Amino acid sequence: MKIAFVFPGQGSQSIGMMGGFGAHPVVRRTFDEASAVLGEDLWGLAESGSEEALALTTNTQPLMLTAGVAVWRAWCETSEWRPTLVAGHSLGEYAALVAAGALTLEDAVPLVRFRAQVMQEAVPEGVGAMAAILGLDDAQVIALCAAQSAADAVVEAVNFNSPGQVVVAGHKNAVEQLMVAAKEGGAKRAVLLPVSAPFHSSLLAPAAARLAERLREVPFCAPDIALIHNVDVREHDTAEAIRQALAMQAARPVRWTQTLQEMQARGVTHIIECGPGKVLAALTKRATDGITGLALTDSDAIGKAQETLASVRDR
What we know:
Strand content: 5-15%
Strand order of the largest sheet: 7-2-1-8-9
Mean pLDDT: 95
CATH superfamily of the largest domain: Malonyl-Coenzyme A Acyl Carrier Protein, domain 2
Order of helices and strands: EHHHHEHHEHEEHEHEHHEHEH
Structural class: alpha/beta
Largest sheet: 5 strands, parallel
Number of strands: 9
Low-confidence stretches: none
Radius of gyration: 19 Å
CATH class of the largest domain: Alpha Beta
């Protein structure tokens, strides 16, 4: 048995998402720690904030980072099981770095707030868009983007989430045209996503440059747990290499399918989603063959995941 932990990013947030972790006081303490760094009440936002406030990128990114780290700490306090690999989907990579000991939460919280700000500022609101294309393979979506894209109407494949699920991003008009072309080309669905910027597209190159400058000020060290970066599906164990991977990630595709398949190639048998929601656990089932995906959505789920691992060990 070989375990990997994965951390979700934007899109997994919801009002009251941490309410089921009352059995783990470390969760609230982690939120208090992050709130003190920002000078804002992240726990109040998570538990009773409006949907609009939760969806605001500058709120979502520090909130989801804190949630992922809080659940990780709850797991570590109550379980002997430790992963041999970690990864995070987009923003989730920052929580993975904290879990792996490469970055402190104190440094990570203001860093992801800055990341959110520069990503939002790179493209004026209303100019960019993202859409999920379901039912076409990666090559088909890439080809459609190449056919539709132009200098003033960019559309690119930016999230390879699982076979048959690819997210595109770019100028809003180009994304909308791509959605039409995808449906005509046999896609089952093409869904516009409720986001405020074309994340991970080349339009965010200015954000990547600003993030690279900010990253130079942040201390990193070699991770204690092997971490697969989703921009290049590789491990990096020096501060400079980690900084480069994080900067590139802002304006390049998230290669999540390949990340999961790399974990399978390394013998991973169980992938545990650490944070609110079940998105990554579901993607695990679609992108791998035979890996068990578990999601730590509340205190009960933590206990059940531990029971599942124990039952496999004791066979």
